[in-house]
């Protein structure tokens, strides 16, 4: 497919779904609707968690952070993606590409750590209920959230800077719909073995290690709940942990498939759709998962709507 000849020398061409032009109009509509739902759903969760005093708990503090991350992650990717889908020009400036890489990578890395912290929060709530308030006190929760953000930003400053400093020898056709580390590394005109090793190590630390820790946390949770015969306790544990476990499965399942599986395992189009899922679709689904499966959030939304109607 021919690209716009007016591309500036320093600009990048995001090939994305350009090899499937018949899908671009459909994707534009679907992604636009998904993005609007992301804005609405995550903003609603942030407002409800902040305004409703009954939700001023560690679980909803972390959920607010997750919603903010999803909101920013989608915003760092979707507007540029929609712009590229609606016309023949698939370009992004070098500055825009660098900003997108730094922002999306830092947010995605932070989310990996935050989801792990949320699993620890659920472990303490279910397995150490009597000590929950003393362990998960506000200052400790803020410190944990700060660690998640520091890990995300730190990883980005290292990976992003090294990636953007690679010589590209005029290569500017990015085989993706966004500027991300693997796609940018492939533009380099030097041996990238060291960069691939670095990316593999980062994947181990930020994807496989969190998944392992989350599985251990839920292993302890299942062990603790299995000793209790009360059906009500089972339901409470399922309601408490089910939403988080579903969100973890969606995010880590698709992102792991992109970063861990060998390139030959998935075709280019399959990788594009997997990337689209964890960067665009998952931020849309997360608020729906937490509101549809969570009585506290649904109750807070109802109270908020009643207050607005009565005012």
From TrEMBL:
One Pfam family in the UniProt entry: 7tm_4
MF terms (GO), sorted A to Z: G protein-coupled receptor activity; olfactory receptor activity
* Gene Ontology cellular component annotations, sorted alphabetically: plasma membrane
Q: Does the keyword Nucleotide-binding apply?
A: no
InterPro entries documented for this protein: GPCR_Rhodpsn, GPCR_Rhodpsn_7TM, Olfact_rcpt
Keyword line: Cell membrane, G-protein coupled receptor, Membrane, Olfaction, Receptor, Sensory transduction, Transducer, Transmembrane, Transmembrane helix
Which compartments does it reside in? Answer: Cell membrane
Q: What is its main location?
A: membrane
Question: How is this protein positioned relative to the membrane?
Answer: Multi-pass membrane protein
Domain named G-protein coupled receptors family 1 profile: residues: 41-290
Parts of the chain that traverse the membrane: 25-48, 60-79, 99-120, 140-158, 200-225, 237-261, 273-292
**Its function?**
Putative odorant or sperm cell receptor.
Family statement drawn from the similarity comment of this UniProt entry: Belongs to the G-protein coupled receptor 1 family.
Report what the protein is called: Olfactory receptor
Species this chain originates from: Cervus hanglu yarkandensis
Q: State the organism's lineage.
A: Eukaryota, Metazoa, Chordata, Craniata, Vertebrata
